[in-house]
Amino acid sequence: MDDDAALSLRYTHVFDIRINFDRRWTTDPLPGGTTRYGYTSVGEGSTISGPRLNGVVVDYSGADWPAIRPDGVVELEAHYMLQADDGALIYIRNSGYVHRLPPEPWKVEAGALAGAGYFRCTPYFRAPAGPHEWLNHTVLIGVGKRMPKVAPDDPPDHSLFRYYAIL
């Protein structure tokens, strides 16, 4: 069977985002008892760094609206504004899932670490014409990591995201 380059998957790291959170709210289960909702607002000092994009997440420009399902899976839905170092404003909508990995790590896709949580997202962008326009027509995937503030001396409550362009 011939290799078909059109069906191969390649990726490259394009940037990381650190989102500091200002506040968190969570509802009790809604009528029907199937889902709880959370809200997390973006705090100050959120940053973007990487080989293809650098800048900041605009303070208080958006929020996470995760739906917390009874099976423990969190459905992510987040909206923010990014500001690149050149001043360009870029809208991001991030959707994805967060959950624990199954107890049989060999049943998890290659590349997932045993014992780690599954935190994956697919961002969608609206960027202005110019150097960041590539975001409007490139599929990206993200992997995330939650970093809650536990002790008073800990850094602020935040999440880290690493984004890869699918080539």
Description:
The structure is a single chain. Helix content is 0%, strand content 50%. By secondary structure, the chain is mostly beta strands. Strands 1, 2, 3, 4, 5, 6, 7, 8, 9, 10 and 11 form an 11-stranded antiparallel β-sheet that branches. Strand 7 and strand 8 form a beta hairpin. The radius of gyration is 17 Å and the shape is globular. The two termini are 22 Å apart.
Anisotropy-based shape:
globular
Order of helices and strands: EEEEEEEEEEE
What structural category arises from helix and sheet content?
mainly beta
Per DSSP E runs of 2 or more residues, the count of β-strands stands at 11
> How much of the residues is beta strand, in percent?
over 45%
Mean pLDDT: 82
- The radius of gyration over CA amounts to 17 Å
Count helical runs: 0
Helix content range: under 10%
Q: Give start-end ranges of low-pLDDT stretches.
A: 104-116
Task: Summarize the biggest pleated sheet.
Answer: 11 strands, antiparallel
First-residue to last-residue Cα separation:
22 Å
Please give a quick description of this structure:
This protein is 0% helix and 50% strand. The protein has 167 residues and is mainly β.
